[in-house]
Design brief:
The complex is a heterodimer of chains A (about 650) and B (about 260). Chain A contains 17 helices and 21 strands. Chain A is of the alpha+beta class and about 650 residues long. In chain A, strand 1 (about 35-40), helix 3 and strand 2 form a beta-alpha-beta unit. The mean pLDDT of chain A is about 95. Chain B has about 260 residues and is α+β, with helices and mostly antiparallel strands. Chain B is about 35% helix and about 15% strand. In chain B, strand 1 (about 5-10) and strand 2 (about 20-30) form a beta hairpin. Chain B starts with a strand and ends with a helix. The chains are: A alpha+beta (about 650), B alpha+beta (about 260). Chains A and B meet through helix 3, helix 5, helix 6, helix 11 and helix 12 of A and helix 1, helix 2 and helix 3 of B.
């Protein structure tokens, strides 16, 4: 398939592309907008902002979320902040610099035009959010405060205490509820999209399961927008919410939407390690901790079970400080994560034994407390230390924290063009659900920025442009042929969904709930397609996944019925889709014979650092569904860099 | 690793109209488990035994999404202060009580769905009545055009931290949603951007709260002590002041007569 990015012509200077693109786009007159129905799936930053903005423009919008309220989407859990090229600090920031940092941070695997637009829109986001009442941190003079974040030499991160995601999401949620009150948006909660309806090659609706009653419901529309988040829960253990899943995206993929770069996943180095096998979720702690904490493990295996106070200074291995003298404990996320894994692989991990091994390293604040005093440390990290103590029962003021990396964000996602439209006309994808903007690695404080840029400022234009373009093709007729829920294609999709549920509920030899299989799948993906990947390991994973899948098909056990609230059934469907996505992730990782960003192939390194191969791999891998999940079709979108010249990352 | 035995008495109710009752489960708890992880273990076991697992709402498990919430031994979100159910850990029960009673948030405004799951959509409708600033997506002023004193902004943030879990309603003897409603009215009412709609906001949101079947505030203060985010009851006083002021001055009539 030929992939058309539909970005503005490269002869147009990059800073004018979005403006000219908008100008060239078609509009829909105000009186006509209410004739068009738009489905938005997901109510996080991207979905909530898109639904609110499209509703406000006058379109007839239906917005869906699986939680009991749109205010619960996982955007809410983002702690650190949101980047914007405001240059309020007069420290040399600019749209161009944010663009540059993001392309470089993404390890030269993102589309330049998309990234520039993101940087350009970042300033509008802050204006919009302040006007909507988001209480960003302020200085004593009453102006907005900023802090600095990894991957940048300027202070451009806006924040609201440690709850920036919460405040931004509530801003979008309030705008959304305002539209619900105005009657332009119908909000459908506790409802999960289980399939996409495609009629005559265009996305025309979705099939949902009402999670309260179990009813399978068809919804038709003229445009479908997926803002359904990332797929980090394929690892079972991640910092994602328990409900975060890939089902909507995956079902769209099965209906023809290409899936791009699934192997680009981000592992965050500072999470609270697992305390026991029963644990189903990890908690992230801000990376800022590495500013004052020193990372170490014992030098000798026999010391690993001892309390840290009993290990003499000379027996402590400060591995980041020794291996990376220039950056020390502040090496980038991927380097910090990988090295934690290496020392644990060597048997030097600390903390309780879980699943037969110790998987944690110390993050020690003793020196910082000695140097700065406890009050200063409390002021800087008090809330994080409290959170750590609440979860582990240990005080980081008295004993070193234990940390270990965990999956946190997925850069890969549904392939979209410059308009955020997928390869299915009429199907759009925004936020973490799409693959655009972050390349192979996302910089801190950029996820919130992308979600809101897509939702508030990109989708409202590009969805309108799609409708306007279709309308101009059929003057005097209906833009989109009228279809009802009785349309054969709707009914067929409905039937498929019902049959799938029936199949899930009637495994031949039911034995285990979906969590059992999810945990086992997660182990395969985490060890074989996690922080460090090898050809051998990936091939092994590709043999193990189908075997486990066969077990799942045979032994899945769901109690209760499909005609009521049934959380086991919900989970089972999501786990089934993670099987297929996990398989594609491994195939993608195996195909990409280089190391870049979040994708590290142990065979491709130089002096222990990731070795990117721009000659052979400067492209987006966009995978097509063929009916056989073991044999997806690879499509390549070549990437060219006219503004930011590819360079090597080194932190020694 | 230290484990101990507990007996759970969990409210089981198949549907809104079915008769509910407590059912007992014996569990070996690990002190490092979170309360919800302990329930996960119970549920996995129930599924393997062919029984229906306990339905409960949860999502982020980081204490921020507001989805989880149950009454544990008579207290919304359990015994630990400033902690949501998902952040509560079993070490809190290491020294007893070893009998743990788990019930849904019970309130007229929160109809039961199943087991421990309740319908909190009334909160969304209170927000719909005015819990926003009417600003269009597009070209607002530059973010720094209106300085806001840090103290004011900080107080707005104190109120904005509400996670909408509903513990305040569950803890209140009147099942009032005053703390939730007041938190939003205070957050937006403190900011310069929120002034234009301030009187209508207070009037409409308080009316919506009444219409949803939530009770009135009679100053028990149980809400603040159950709130996992420590939202202050002082905000209820601010809400009442805004509400009375809006009703007494009949802001919109006054605005109309201005033009006469």
């Amino acid at each position: 398939m030929e992939l058309r990015s539909n970005e503005p012509d490269k002869s147009i200077p990059i800073e004018q592309r979005w403006t000219k693109h908008k100008m060239a786009g078609k509009l829909v007159a105000p009186a006509n907008r209410r004739k068009y129905e738009i489905i938005v799936v997901g109510s996080g930053l991207a979905g909530g902002a898109a639904a609110a903005s499209l509703g406000e423009l006058g379109y007839k919008v239906k917005c869906f979320c699986f939680q009991d309220s749109p205010r619960r989407a996982h955007s809410i859990a983002a702690q650190g902040g949101i980047n914007a090229a405001k240059n309020y600090q007069n420290d040399g920031d600019s749209v161009y610099r944010l663009f540059y940092d993001t392309v470089k941070g993404g390890d030269f695997r993102a589309r330049e035009a998309n990234v520039y637009r993101l940087a350009e829109l970042s300033v509008n986001i802050i204006d919009q959010c302040v006007a909507a009442g988001v209480p960003f941190a302020r200085e004593y003079g009453g102006l907005l405060a900023n802090r600095s974040f990894g991957g940048a030499q300027v202070s451009r991160t806006f924040y609201a205490r440690g709850q920036t995601g919460q405040q931004l999401l509530l801003g979008a949620y309030q705008a959304l509820e305002r539209q619900v009150a105005a009657g332009t948006v119908e909000m459908i909660t506790r409802s999960e999209m289980l399939d996409l309806v495609v009629v005559d090659g265009k996305a025309r609706g979705i099939i949902t399961r009402n999670l309260k009653t179990g009813e399978i419901e068809p919804h038709v529309a003229d445009v479908v927008v997926l803002c359904t988040g990332g797929y980090g829960n394929v690892f079972f253990l991640s910092t994602n919410a328990m409900g975060s899943n890939c089902t909507a995206a995956w079902r769209a993929h099965r209906k023809g939407a290409l899936f791009a770069n699934p192997c680009y996943t981000q592992i965050h180095p500072t999470c609270i390690p697992r305390a026991g096998e029963y644990q189903g979720k990890l908690t992230l702690m801000s990376e800022s901790l590495r500013n004052d904490g020193r990372v170490w493990v014992p030098r000798k295996k026999e010391d690993c079970g001892k309390p840290p106070e009993q290990i003499a200074e000379k027996d402590r291995y400060y591995y980041l400080e020794e291996k990376y003298p220039a950056f020390g404990n502040l090496v980038p996320r991927d380097v910090a994560s990988r090295n934690a894994m290496y020392v644990c692989d060597e048997g030097l991990g600390v903390g309780p034994v879980v699943d037969g091994e110790r998987r944690a390293v110390y993050l020690d604040f003793a020196d910082a407390i000695k140097r700065l005093g406890e009050p200063i440390i409390r002021e800087r990290y008090g809330n994080l230390f409290d959170m750590y103590e609440r979860i582990t029962g240990e005080s980081p003021y008295k004993t070193p924290m234990r940390i270990y990396p965990a999956t946190h964000y997925t850069m890969g996602g549904i392939w979209v063009d410059y308009n955020l439209m997928t390869t299915i006309p009429g199907l759009f994808a925004g936020g973490e659900a799409n693959f655009s903007d972050h390349g192979a690695n996302r910089l801190g404080a950029s996820a919130l920025m992308q979600g809101l840029a897509d939702g508030y400022f990109v989708l409202p234009y590009t969805v309108g442009n799609y409708i306007g373009t279709e309308a101009s093709k059929r003057i005097g007729q209906r833009t989109f042929p009228e279809i009802g829920t009785d349309h054969p294609e709707v009914q067929k999709t409905l039937k498929d969904v019902k049959e799938r549920i029936k199949r899930l509920m009637s495994a031949p030899e039911p034995k285990y709930g979906p969590d059992y299989f999810h945990r086992e799948l997660g182990k395969i993906i985490w060890t074989k397609c996690g922080m460090s990947r090898t050809k051998e390991g990936l091939e092994e994973a590709l043999r193990q996944i189908p075997k486990l899948r066969a077990e799942f098909d045979k032994h899945l056990k769901i109690t209760g019925t499909g005609e009521e609230l049934n959380q086991t059934l919900e989970k089972a469907g999501r786990v089934e889709d993670f099987f297929e996505l996990g398989q594609l992730m491994c195939i993608d990782a195996l195909t990409r014979e280089e190391s870049c960003g979040g994708h590290f192939r142990a065979e491709h390194e130089e002096d222990g650092e990731a070795a990117r191969d721009d000659d052979n791999f400067a492209f987006v891998s966009a995978w097509g569904y063929t009916g056989d999940t073991a044999k997806p079709e690879l499509n390549k979108e070549p990437l060219t860099f006219d503004y930011v010249k590819p360079s090597k990352r080194s932190y020694k | 690793m230290s484990t101990f035995n507990i007996t759970l008495h969990v409210w089981r109710q198949k549907s809104p109209t079915a008769q509910g009752k407590f059912e007992d489960y014996k569990v070996e708890a690990d002190e490092h488990m979170s309360f919800l992880e302990m329930l996960d273990v119970v549920n996995e076991d129930l599924i393997e035994k062919g029984k229906e697992p306990i339905a409960f709402d949860h999502d982020c498990r980081e204490g921020i999404c507001g989805m989880c919430g149950m009454v544990i031994n008579g207290e919304a979100h359990g015994p630990q202060k400033l902690t949501t159910t998902c952040q509560l850990h079993m070490r809190q029960f290491k020294n007893g009580p070893f009998d743990i009673w788990i019930e849904p948030f019970r309130a007229a405004g929160f109809p039961l769905v199943k087991d421990l799951v309740v319908d909190r959509s009334g909160f969304d409708r209170i927000i719909q009545a005015g819990g926003y600033i009417s600003i269009r997506t597009g070209a607002p002023l530059d973010a720094n055009a209106t300085p806001i004193p840090k103290a004011v902004s900080d107080m707005a943030m104190d109120a904005a931290e509400c996670i909408g879990c509903g513990a305040c309603v569950a803890a209140c003897p009147n099942a009032s949603a005053s703390l939730f409603t007041a938190a939003k009215i205070t957050h937006l009412g403190l900011l310069p951007q929120g002034q234009a709609e301030r009187p209508e906001r207070a009037r409409n949101m308080v009316t919506a709260m009444d219409n949803e079947g939530f009770g009135s505030c009679t100053n028990h203060g149980e809400c603040e002590s159950a709130c996992p985010k420590g939202i202050s009851v002082d905000f209820i006083a601010r809400m009442n002041r805004d509400f009375v002021k809006a009703s007494a001055t009949a802001y919109d009539r006054a605005a109309k007569s201005d033009g006469d």
